[in-house]
Amino acid sequence: MVSSALFAAPNSNLEGKDKVSRKKRFWFAIIAILPTFAIFGWVRMFPIAETLRLSLFEWNLLSRNKPFVGLENFRELFQDDQFLDAIINTAAIAFGAMAVTIPVSMVLAAVIYHRTRSRFAGFYETAVFIPHVVSLVPAAMAWKWVFDAKLGPLNRLIVAFGGEAQPWLFDPVLSVICIILLVSWQTLGYGVLIYLVGFRNLPKSVYEAARLDGANGVQSFFFMSVPLLKPITLYVSVVTLISGFNVYAQAFILASDTQGAPGRLVRVLVLDMLENSFQNFRVGYAAAEAVILLVIVLVLTGVQFGLLRQRGRK
């Protein structure tokens, strides 16, 4: 009994010291994380909370009276034809860019991945990623020149092959297509790099087994790579949708010099928000538009995550 007590005492002391050290590590981690959370809260969460608050007021920059109106701004939004047009155009651009970016970036990533032994593999990755880091305004100006109805190389190429020149930036539907191509071109490089990471982490044993069963490269891609890369596809689709719903400069630059006012031909949601804030001075009304944009992005992201979980369970 004495010997067991002698052995138990040191063990209890060690357990006590271990608990104290755990508590110290825990509070050290909390103190170390607090500045990051504070900066994140101030830079990210506080503006969101302030936007939610402003959306409930008739907040005019030129008026001292800023009355509380509740959901009146939201009710007025859904009766505003300009806002509804902006929502439709923004959704068309976002989903159109996603429909282009995901398959093209996956195919390009597969081609680059299978050429990794080539001496130009690094060049391919750099060339594809360059559009993602190019400044937005010069890139949009270059694309505007490409789509120019009179001097653009695209129309010249069409006419050279016997076709008819198209008013790319003077037709609402064609202008939306041009913006989709521009957004897809900018997000394509990022999608390719993310898919490359996915391809390089896929188990090679699965492809070897498929090859032994007689599957060729195309079959392996569609029946092996595409299902295994569903998490990557989810991530790329969410990022593309968010960037598509936040489109502004592309529409502003490509659709300028039409109908006598910049950006009037293709009206998008962010452009409508900026005009209501800084031209019409209706900050509360613009904040309500921002809240709707936030809700749309959150709902779409939640739906995509839900679909991925259902497919994973199956």
Please outline what is shown here.
With 314 residues, the protein is mostly helical. It contains 13 helices and no strands. Helix 1 packs across helix 13 (283-313), helix 3 (81-113) packs parallel to helix 7 (172-200) and helix 12 (269-278) packs antiparallel against helix 13 (283-313).
Describe this protein's structure.
- With 314 residues, this protein is mainly alpha-helical.
- It folds into two domains: 1-54; 76-313, MetI-like fold (Orthogonal Bundle).
- It is 75% helix and 0% strand.
- The protein contains 13 helices and no strands.
- The protein has helices at residues 2-54, 72-77, 81-113, 121-133, 136-146, 153-160, 172-200, 204-212, 217-228, 230-245, 249-254, 269-278, 283-313.
- The longest helix is centred in the N-terminal third of the chain and has 53 residues, at 2-54.
- The protein is globular and about 75 Å long.
- The chain starts with a helix and ends with a helix.
